[in-house]
Write a structure and sequence with these properties.
The complex is a heterotetramer, with 2 copies of chain A and 2 copies of chain B. Chain A is α/β, with parallel strands linked by helices. Chain A contains 3 helices and 7 strands, in the order E-E-E-H-E-E-H-E-H-E. Strand 1 (about 15-20) of chain B pairs antiparallel with strand 1 of chain C. The complex binds adenosine-5'-diphosphate (ADP) (2 copies). The site of one adenosine-5'-diphosphate has 22 residues of chain C, from helix 2 and helix 4.
């Protein structure tokens, strides 16, 4: 839902859904890009507070946003990423791409 | 060539289910909930549950988007066969889609033929990481079978093999 | 006699799954979780979820204990076929067990042939109470098919029928 | 589990499980009867506090215990029965057999 997307200064904050699979990912990417383009945000923050499941499709969403914004110097951040999601990011080699924000 | 179907010795099988569903993306969540419900009597740990759900989600997503080209047709079918031998889970995900030309290459981490769909190329890598064993059988134009094994819960790894 | 299988018009079908599982009592819970997961995308109310799970539990339990005599064999199979046409759920539970001599009598509330197993005779009555429609096809020595329909969520009852 | 069965005076209190289906019912009846016989209890109290699912097998458990104890003047009670379970009991005609205890 759109209340899960908030622009604060130069940051797009996305409250990720409970389950992030291919079905959900398509929708997240589409919405995120609409904000990135229309509000000209430079950075994206993924909030995993609610997330209880993620597969490699979620990795694709993060990588895809990174590719869109990194050429303009933007960064991607992950907040509330539990040990499971950290492990998926590590396995995918995203440790140098996603900045993990400790809570 | 390895035979995908073989005669089964039912003396070792403690439970079995065969699920066939439409290759539509709603069924990615359905398939992983079904496998979670199937192994529930083994009292899996939360980590084991996540591992199995992730691997199944990868295999089923691949069948739907790569095997059947993401066209969302109800008449395209994915099969998921699950079997328990004591505490060993076997999951087989089968599609009759386009198949894979070079399986070894497909299984390399980060390799994907669909960067335009933002696939990360980590599907097979996750299946390998989260299951104990992974086998992939595929033939172009015939389809793909992914077979995975994992020991669940506290039981011991006791599969008789001849 | 009513034909149990007929040609399907796939233009109306929005999702479908076919599940086959061992006639063991662990799978009573499995079957109702599977149907719950299948209808989840329709956003059912809690009551609708309970209704469907109860009806499926009754039909699957009957297949396992009456159809296959409660013998717990992995090679005895129960099928559960689910289909969505928009917001209409169709569930079919099929066994190849002993069948029912007199279906009308079997469907009477409180009628049971297994008082010694503490069956209450309310299985069919619950299926009727909690689903919108119930059909039972059975033949002695051939098995039993229970077919049930229910409208889920907010959609309207729009099944084209010719 | 056996901590779900407690004998207090002449009452067997059973904490019913989360899901009461045929698979569970067989076990509940067996355990309950062991207590009824060995401790000679006259009445049975079914506590549905934890129960989120019940089918007609649960009706069979209640009826079965009722048949075992009613000839000696015993009664069966239901506590914490939510609207769903009340409806199942009513549909099964158990309203004169089970005493619903309001909380
Ligand atoms: N069921 C399948 N049918 C056809 N091709 C497949 C199937 N599964 C995987 N592939 C091929 O293998 C590649 C790698 O798969 P995977 O590691 O899961 O990564 P991804 O799904 O992110 O592309 C896919 O891009 C696709 O070309
Ligand atoms: N799948 C089946 N196969 C054979 N007999 C069945 C089947 N389902 C129901 N029956 C018969 O119908 C009777 C009534 O079923 P039901 O109303 O569900 O009550 P119960 O399961 O409590 O006996 C059963 O006792 C049994 O004789």
């Amino acid at each position: 839902m759109d209340e899960d997307y908030k622009v604060i200064d130069n940051y797009l904050m996305i409250k990720m859904p409970a389950e992030i699979d291919h079905h959900q990912s398509v929708d997240i990417s589409k919405r995120a890009d609409r904000y990135i383009v229309s509000k000209q945000v430079g950075n994206v923050v993924f909030d995993f507070e609610r997330t209880t499941f993620m597969d490699s499709s979620g990795v694709g969403v993060i990588l895809g946003r990174y590719r869109k914004i990194s050429c303009f110097g933007g960064k991607v951040y992950a907040v509330n990423a539990g040990s499971r999601i950290r492990r998926l990011l590590l396995l995918s080699g995203l440790e140098n791409i996603v900045e993990l924000v400790e809570n | 060539m390895i035979e995908v179907t073989e005669k089964k010795d039912y003396r070792l099988v403690t439970n079995e289910m065969r699920l066939e569903f439409a290759a539509v993306s709603d069924n990615e969540a359905f398939a992983r909930m079904a496998v979670a419900a199937f192994i529930a009597p083994l009292n899996p740990t939360l980590e084991e549950l996540s591992d199995v759900k992730t691997a199944v989600s990868e295999a089923v997503t691949n069948a739907i988007i790569h095997g059947y080209g993401n066209r969302g047709r109800v008449t395209d079918r994915v099969q998921m066969n699950c079997e328990l031998k004591g505490s060993i889970l076997e999951v087989e995900v089968v599609d009759r889609g386009v198949g894979i030309e070079d399986v070894n290459r497909a299984m390399e981490p980060l390799y994907t033929t669909r960067p335009e769909w933002e696939r990360s190329g980590m599907g097979f890598a996750f299946m390998e990481a989260f299951m104990d064993e992974l086998e992939v059988f595929s033939e172009p134009e015939m389809g793909t079978t992914v077979r995975m094994y994992k020991k669940i819960g506290l039981g011991s790894w006791i599969v008789d093999e001849e």
